[in-house]
Batch of 4 targets.
Target 1
Amino acid sequence: MTRLSYQYVVIRCVPRVDREEFLNVGVVLYCQATDYLAVAWRVDRDRLSATFPALDMDAVCAALDFVEGVCVGDERGGEAASAPISQRFGFLKAPRSTVLQPGPVHGGVTTDPARQLEHLLEKLVG
């Protein structure tokens, strides 16, 4: 089995940037060797609303849908979706001051990027 290197970022929901409090809501995984770029996300509305009562859950889901559009390269991702895969990952991992923020870039090796993404979602998001 071929071991493939990959990079990933955890997508954090950060409603109040000034407080630096967040909950993990997704993972973006990029494997250059297979041109694989995907996001897996899960919004636990009860947990988020308990932690951030004023948070607009629909806006969070819409932002995550945008991330998914960038990954798959369709119209949901706007102009960023038309870039090559490596640039799309670069766009998604770039720091920003919005309600969704990427964490630091991490890496690893896997034989199956899609299965690794699901594993990371379970481990890091729940």
Note: Residues 4-124 form one domain.
Target 2
Amino acid sequence: MEALYLTIPMAMCIAGFFLYVFVLAFKKGQFEDIESPKYRMFFEEEYPVQKNSETPAVSKETREDGPTSKS
């Protein structure tokens, strides 16, 4: 029974903290537009430039036409 005197107030404090964080995020507009982020990946125009990397960057020909085998 004594454990309940400690765990219930701790649970209430944790729940209050998460409620405060949720309200703060809601006021900042984090939940206003939930549709467009999932479509944003379709509108990327170019791949990021890779400098000083061991893997070669994708060439423009490979990106537009796809991989081709010229044997």
Note: The longest helix spans residues 2-27.
Target 3
Amino acid sequence: MTKTSGEDPRKTDVKVSLIGGHRLTGETLHERTLTASLIGGADVDLTDVDIPDGADLRITKLSLIGGVSLKVRADVRVEVHGLRLGGVKDDGPSEPGGPTVRVDAWGLLGGVTVRRS
């Protein structure tokens, strides 16, 4: 995860495509990331990233069709918000405390899948 300087702590990365999704890894993300596409999902892998305790990483996904596949460590809390047809699948419990990843997924079709390693 790329740290922002103290001057602009709310920097947002924006990734846009008409057709096709985005593959995001921890070293390419800032604290806020927006990914938008008409058709295409977001594949986010944060397993190799040391997210500090108390950190709040936000990923916003806007698409007509396309969901989010998120891979995190077991100690990371995941909060999913937004409106989409497809629901949320989280294959494991999160431990209390620790860092938080918030996913805001807005779209017509496509769910959010969280996998923990």
Note: The longest strand covers residues 56-65.
Target 4
Amino acid sequence: MKTERTRSQERILKLLKTLNKAISAQDLYIELRNCNQSIGLATIYRALEALKLEGVIQVRTLASGESLYSSVQQDKHHLTCLQCGQSIGINECPVHELETQLHQFHNFKIFYHTLEFFGLCNQCQIIQADHSKT
């Protein structure tokens, strides 16, 4: 049985769908205030948790520890630089078949998945190589 969403959850979900990008809870708070829809930060975190458990939003945790939230629209895959924090989207998905197998074998309802590789972007590799020469 589906639980009914609160007004705060509906506002947040609508904003995430409108923005069509990943955003932090703090930035959501600012966006909502700018739209004259003040919601307390604690309420935003509770709403995000409920929406995540419902499977309608996804969370991505950056190397810095910051969490970014977005509406579930498609799988997200990234190359993330540990030095500058740049995140490069990957369009290919090598794990769709694995997802199907896991769902069938474990009878586990999968809402979405993420795939992220961590390392150094080309620019940071050049900077690191220049520093090692000195």
Note: Helices lie at 7-19, 25-34, 41-54, 96-106, 122-133.
